[in-house]
């Protein structure tokens, strides 16, 4: 059976969890993202090549609009993470998470995420990963979801392990770090036939 054109695949643009609301990129979100990154540069700089310097409002808005285009084309599925306020609506922007390196024929996805410094250590990354893993396996019929991280990124490793991703191996000198030196990449995965592939709902609501 031929793989449908990815642009026709239905992907929700709003995902509501217990404490988080995930939204697809929207025009006008750039300034909020710029502020979140600027206030977290020292935390993000060791791991993120795109966070070496504080972005301007304009450059952040450019990134948001490119992410919006990628979302429509289904080439990358990036979401903004918002804290759910007392009214059940979007509060503070906490970071981003998404599905990358998408192979629609295989239904394989790479899951990445980042948080602003003030949101660390509160379980938000774990909730975001669980929500996107549920999206991948239930709505997008994933066969494989993986998390790749610098071997020295202990926070990211801990999140992957808490969310039931299994350590597959260490790829030595697999990528170039932010300082230009080679780094070892740790690969975690969940697959449809694994005992962990059941979705972790946690109050998940999805709006098309």
Description of the structure:
With 208 residues, the protein is of the alpha+beta class. The protein has one domain (6-141, 195-207): Aminopeptidase (3-Layer(aba) Sandwich). Helices cover 26% and strands 33% of the residues. The protein is built from five helices and nine strands. Strands 7-8-6-5-4-3-2-1-9 form a nine-stranded mixed sheet, with helices on both faces. Strand 4 (90-103) and strand 5 form a beta hairpin. Helix 1 (30-38) crosses helix 3 (57-73). The longest helix has 17 residues, at 57-73. The radius of gyration is 16 Å and the shape is globular.
- Which architecture would the CATH scheme give at its second level? 3-Layer(aba) Sandwich
Average pLDDT, rounded to a whole number, is 93
Major sheet, described briefly? 9 strands, mixed
The count of β-strands is: 9
Structural class estimated from helices and strands = alpha+beta
Largest sheet strand order: 7-8-6-5-4-3-2-1-9
| The CATH class | Alpha Beta
The ordered H/E elements are EEHHHEEEHEHEEE
Number of helices: 5
Strand content: 25-35%
The Rg value, from CA coordinates, equals 16 Å
**Quick one: CATH superfamily?**
Gcn5-related N-acetyltransferase (GNAT)
**Uncertain segments of ≥5 residues (pLDDT<50)?**
none
Task: Fill in the keyword field for this structure.
208 residues, nine-stranded mixed sheet, alpha+beta, Aminopeptidase
Brief account:
This protein is 26% helix and 33% strand. The chain is an alpha+beta fold.
Map the helices and strands:
Blueprint: E1 14-16, E2 20-23, H1 30-38, H2 41-44, H3 57-73, E3 77-84, E4 90-103, E5 108-115, H4 124-139, E6 144-150, H5 154-162, E7 166-176, E8 182-191, E9 205-207
Parallel strand pairs: 5-6
Antiparallel strand pairs: 1-2, 1-9, 2-3, 3-4, 4-5, 6-8, 7-8
